[in-house]
Design goal:
alpha+beta, five-stranded mixed β-barrel, 13 helices, 24 strands, elongated, telomere, telomerase inhibitor activity
Length: about 700
C-alpha cells in the first residue's frame, strides 16, 4: 500500500495518500486505511446521546496540496480519550474505516482498531531531522516508526499552507463555534421567516433543474398557514409544465405521465413547500432524488418568496466547507431503536411516515365517498326528465348556447316590465345584512339599512358571518378626522383610510375592454441590468415594452361595481384586481392571453359566471357606436334592418346576478408636479380593490 513520488513526498509503508480517497475513490467504503495529514479544521468534541463524544478533523497531505481537498475524520470516543490538536498539527491515523454517510463524498470514521497520534506543529523540526520530539505524549498506545517520524517534517514544511490553511485566529474561531450548535430540526408546521432548520421530508414531484440550481416541492405532512395552498387545479398547471416551467409550449394533461404514473405524489392544501437547492446540493439532488423520495435537509433558510405571500426554502452552499452536502436520502425502514444520532433521525422519519400514511388513508376514504356521491348523482340525473335538468345539465354546447340566448331574451322582457336588471334563475336567497356599525374610520357607529337581494350562488366570499354589509355610498364616502388646531375643533378630510367592507354588488363594467389584456407581462431583470430609481418612472415603460419569452405574467384589471339593491341612482365604484386576488377570484394563473387559448377560454367562462351577459352588452354598445360613426360620415343615411333580424338591432339589457364580496380601501403615494427646482410634494390617492372573493364552478 506504500506510495512514493512528488505528490506524496514518499509516504511511509502502510499509508495511502488522501487523494486516493477523496479524488480517485480507490478506497471503497468499509475498507480500513491509514493516513497522515495536516489539520486544517477541527470541530471540538461534543457529547452524543450515548457514552461517547464526537469530534471531527479535516486532514490534508501533499497529494491534496494544490486542490485544497481534505478528508474528514469522524472520531467517536470518551471525552478523556479524545486527541488534543492545535493549528497545523500533524495527525497520524492508523486503521480507520472509509464510509459514505449521508453525502456522496467519502469520509473516515474510527473503530476499535483505530490508533491516533499527534505531532505539535510548533515543535516539528525541519527535514531531514526526526519529529520524535514533537510527538505529544498523550495518545493511544501506538509508537510511530522512525520512517513516520522523518516523514512528518517533510509533510509539515513542504505543504502550501497559504492555499489550504485558514489563519490561526480563524481556525480557533471555527473550533469554538463548533460547540455552539443548536438543535435545528423542526416540523414544517413550525417554520417561519428567517429561520434556519433541518427537515425530514418527502419529495412531492420530480425536481426541476434550472442549470445552476434545482427546485423541489417537499412535505412532512404537517400544515403551515403561510404555505401556498395547493389545489387540484394548481397542481395540474404546475405538473403540466415539466421541462417548461413558464408554459410557453402550451398546457398538457400534467396530472399523470405518459406511463400513467402520477407526477404529483404530495398532499393538497398548505402542507408542501418549495425548496431551491443551489450547488453543490443541486448536483446530489439531480443524481439521487425523485418524486416520492424521503430526504433529510440540513440548514435550510426559510423566507418569503418574491410575491411576499408564501414561505419558501433556500439551501445554499457553505462558504467554510464548499464541498459539504446538506441533502441525504433517509431509509424509512431504518431501526429507530438505539442511542445515536442515526436512531434519532430514524425516529423522526418514522413519525413523518406515519403522518404520510394517515393522510393517504384519509384521502382515499374521501375519494371513495366522492365517487359514491357522484355515482348517486348520475343515477338521479338519469331518472329526471330532460326539462327538469336545467341549464347546467345541457347535453352539448350548442344546446347550452341556445338556452343561454333564451334566458337573455327572457331577461330583456323582465327588465322592460319590472325595470330590473337581475337575471333570476335560482331560488330566492335573501340574506339579511346585519346593521352596519362602522363609520368612515371602521369604528362602531351608525347603522345601515338592511339589504335584501338574491345572490349568485356560484360566487363566494370570505366567511365572516358577523361582518356587517355596507352600501357603495358608505364605502366611497370621504373620511374625516377630528383634531384640534389653535384650540379649535376641526374636521380634517383624510386622503384615505385602511378599511375593509363587505357588500352586495353586481358588475356593470370592466377594464381593459378586452379579456386578452387582463394579464400583463413583466420582463425579468437580467444580470447587469441597472436598477432604476423611483424618479425614473420605469414602471410604465416596463409594462408597455413587449414582454420577452422569460416574462412573468400577472393579473391586473378593474371592475366597476354597483349596489345590488334597486335604486333610482345606484352608486358605483371601480375596484382593482391584482395578481393575488385575480388568482383567488378566477382560480387561474395569469398567462399571455393573446396566445394561451385554453386559459383565455377558461377565463371567459368564469367571468361570465360573475358578470352574466356584460360582455355581450359591451360588444353591442361598441358596435352601435361604430355604426353611428359611419352613419354620421354618410350624412345620416341608414338602411333599414333586414326582416330576418327580428329585433336584433335592439340594445340588450344587462342580465347578471349580484354577489357578496369584500372591498378594501387603501392609499397609493404619488408626486404632484411642481415648478423646476422645487422639492416634489408627495400626496396620496385613494384606491379600492376587490378581495376575498372566488368564482366557484
Amino acid at each position: 500500500m506504500a506510495s512514493a513520488g512528488p505528490k506524496t513526498g514518499g509516504l511511509p509503508s502502510g499509508f495511502i495518500p488522501i487523494s486516493d480517497i477523496v479524488q480517485h475513490s480507490r478506497a471503497q467504503p468499509g475498507t480500513l486505511v491509514s493516513v497522515i495529514g495536516l489539520v486544517t479544521d477541527c470541530q471540538l468534541p461534543m457529547p452524543t446521546s450515548g457514552k461517547d463524544h464526537k469530534c471531527a478533523l479535516t486532514l490534508c497531505d501533499l497529494s491534496t496540496n494544490d486542490v485544497s481537498d481534505g478528508i474528514v475524520v469522524n472520531i467517536f470516543r470518551p471525552e478523556a480519550a479524545m486527541p488534543r490538536v492545535g493549528y497545523a498539527d500533524v495527525v497520524v491515523v492508523h486503521l480507520v474505516k472509509v464510509q459514505r454517510y449521508k453525502t456522496s463524498f467519502l469520509s473516515l470514521i474510527t473503530n476499535y482498531q483505530t490508533k491516533i497520534r499527534v505531532y505539535s506543529a510548533s515543535k516539528i523540526p525541519r527535514p531531514p531531522n526526526s519529529a520524535v520530539s514533537a510527538l505529544i505524549k498523550e495518545g493511544d498506545k501506538f509508537e510511530p516508526s522512525e520512517e513516520i517520524n522523518r516523514y512528518v517534517p517533510r509533510l509539515c514544511h513542504d505543504m502550501n499552507k497559504d492555499s489550504i490553511m485558514p489563519s490561526e485566529a480563524e481556525f480557533q474561531q471555527r473550533a469554538s463555534a463548533s460547540l455552539n450548535v443548536k438543535p435545528k430540526f423542526c416540523l414544517l408546521s413550525d417554520v417561519n421567516d428567517g429561520k434556519f432548520c433541518d427537515l425530514v421530508v418527502r419529495v412531492c414531484r420530480d425536481p426541476y433543474d434550472h442549470g445552476d440550481k434545482v427546485t423541489l416541492y417537499v412535505s412532512d405532512y404537517t400544515e403551515n398557514s403561510s404555505f401556498f395552498n395547493f389545489s387540484l387545479e394548481s397542481i395540474k398547471d404546475l405538473v403540466s409544465r415539466r421541462g417548461d416551467p413558464y408554459g410557453y409550449t402550451g398546457a398538457t394533461n400534467g396530472a399523470v405521465e405518459e406511463s400513467g404514473k402520477p407526477v404529483w405524489v404530495g398532499p393538497l392544501g398548505k402542507r408542501a413547500v418549495q425548496i431551491t437547492a443551489f450547488e453543490p446540493h443541486a448536483g446530489y439532488v439531480r443524481e439521487h432524488v425523485t418524486a416520492g423520495t424521503w430526504i433529510s435537509l440540513r440548514n435550510v433558510q426559510i423566507k418569503y418568496g418574491h410575491d411576499s405571500q408564501n414561505l419558501e426554502g433556500k439551501l445554499r452552499g457553505d462558504q467554510d466547507f464548499p464541498n459539504k452536502i446538506n441533502v441525504s436520502l433517509v431509509d424509512i425502514e431504518a431501526d429507530a431503536d438505539g442511542v445515536d444520532q442515526r436512531a434519532r433521525e430514524a425516529a423522526r422519519v418514522k413519525e413523518a411516515v406515519r403522518r404520510w400514511r394517515q393522510y393517504d388513508a384519509e384521502k382515499k376514504a374521501q375519494l371513495k365517498q366522492l365517487k359514491a356521491a357522484e355515482a348517486a348523482g348520475v343515477k338521479r340525473k338519469a331518472a329526471m326528465p330532460a326539462e327538469a335538468m336545467g341549464e347546467s345539465f345541457c347535453k352539448n354546447s350548442s344546446e347550452k348556447e341556445a338556452k343561454t340566448k333564451a334566458a337573455v331574451k327572457r331577461a330583456r322582457k323582465k327588465a322592460a316590465q319590472r325595470g330590473e336588471t337581475a337575471l333570476k334563475r335560482q331560488q330566492p336567497c335573501s340574506p339579511q345584512a346585519e346593521p352596519n356599525n362602522t363609520n368612515n374610520h371602521g369604528d362602531v357607529s351608525a347603522p345601515t339599512r338592511q339589504i335584501e337581494v338574491q345572490l349568485n350562488p356560484h360566487v363566494k366570499c370570505e366567511n365572516h358571518s358577523s361582518a356587517p354589509t355596507s352600501h357603495i355610498a358608505t364605502i366611497i364616502a370621504p373620511s374625516y378626522h377630528l383634531t384640534s388646531i389653535n384650540n379649535e375643533q376641526v374636521n380634517v378630510r383624510l386622503p384615505f383610510i385602511n378599511a375593509k367592507y363587505k357588500s352586495y354588488v353586481r358588475v356593470v363594467d370592466f377594464h381593459p375592454p378586452s379579456l386578452t389584456q387582463f394579464a400583463v407581462g413583466r420582463n425579468k431583470p437580467k444580470y447587469g441590468d441597472i436598477l432604476l430609481s423611483d424618479d425614473d418612472n420605469s414602471s410604465d415603460d416596463e409594462e408597455s415594452a413587449t414582454p420577452d419569452q422569460d416574462a412573468t405574467w400577472e393579473w391586473r384589471f378593474s371592475l366597476q361595481l354597483e349596489d345590488a339593491s334597486p335604486s333610482p341612482s345606484p352608486q358605483r365604484v371601480w375596484v382593482v384586481v391584482d395578481n393575488a386576488e385575480g388568482q383567488q377570484l378566477t382560480g387561474l394563473d395569469a398567462a399571455d392571453l393573446r396566445h394561451d387559448v385554453d386559459t383565455l377560454s377558461n377565463l371567459h367562462d368564469r367571468m361570465a359566471i360573475l358578470w352574466g351577459n356584460l360582455g355581450e352588452v359591451k360588444d353591442k354598445a361598441a358596435t352601435k357606436k361604430e355604426n353611428n360613426g359611419r352613419v354620421a360620415a354618410l350624412g345620416g343615411l341608414r338602411a333599414p334592418p333586414p326582416d330576418s333580424s327580428d329585433g336584433e338591432d335592439e340594445e340588450p339589457a344587462l342580465a347578471n346576478m349580484p354577489f357578496a364580496c369584500y372591498i378594501k380601501q387603501y392609499g397609493v403615494p404619488f408626486q404632484r408636479g411642481v415648478e423646476a427646482g422645487a422639492q416634489p410634494v408627495q400626496q396620496w390617492t385613494r384606491v379600492f380593490a376587490l378581495t376575498g372573493t372566488q368564482i366557484q364552478r
